[in-house]
């Protein structure tokens, strides 16, 4: 019996090169100049501009600008990166698959830039209540905001790996959900259920449902990276179940579709499809946990210990939620299930990446 040849596994996380860093800086400078012009125009168009007021909030203008430059820089960065070390495999993808991957990466970076910028200025406004944003500060703040957004997003999209995509997914889901929570028109949403956040005709619900839809799309892209990583590990002899490299990505694709459908069908639009989608996502999670010893043969023993711990936590949550016990409310149960699913994804990806390295 031969031992796994870990040296044949490609480096999963190549560091940004000097060329990538240089491109990011030049694009950031261009974004800063564009931001300065944009800030000047906003200061002329918007009257009585404040950081996060009701009528002309600078936060919204800045978030829109950050989203636009994020869309452009992520498109350029992700497209150029397909020829860089560690990313060449993307050139062999079918055109439609590469297009879907690019769209999902761009959408998530765009949405994350919007949410992060909006949230940042909302928090900043709490420290400067009622402060008017004059032309000078509109130009400076917008230049800094768009410049930094361009720089960060370009580096992120240019160095996309499975683990970084996992981190991006976690950050996107958390920031999007928290933003929906703090902007919802019903401060007592938690007394009903978690999905109640997506049932209003308000910006908070658009953010909540959009986060789920974009997050689901990103999970489907995530599956392509997992297929490549597991294929490398099977070829190197680290994973012994060759079929797993085909089965696991399909399960992740289904999970992503179900997550997106949770946002596509809010509870006030179609309760049945909403619940079916949520249960389908949970079902894929359980399948990955239960079938793990067979699908992931060759992974470290610690991974399986962690995996069974997630399974035990899931079963315990179900037991504590059933009406006969009723310890958990529906909101608490939904939040716990979501946390377990995305927590397991993070752990799984870290162990997958660790398996690609020499111990």
* Proportion of residues in helical segments: over 70%
Number of helices: 11
Envelope shape: flat
How many domains?
A: 2
Report the sheet-strand fraction. under 5%
Structural class: mainly alpha
Give the total of beta strands.
0
State the distance separating the first and last CA atoms: 20 Å
Sketch the major β-sheet.
none
Let me know the average pLDDT: 84
Note the run of SSEs as H and E: HHHHHHHHHHH
Radius of gyration: 22 Å
Question: Spans with pLDDT under 50 lasting ≥5 residues?
Answer: none
Organism: Microbacterium insulae
Protein name: DUF998 domain-containing protein
Pfam families: DUF998 (PF06197)
Keywords: Membrane, Transmembrane, Transmembrane helix
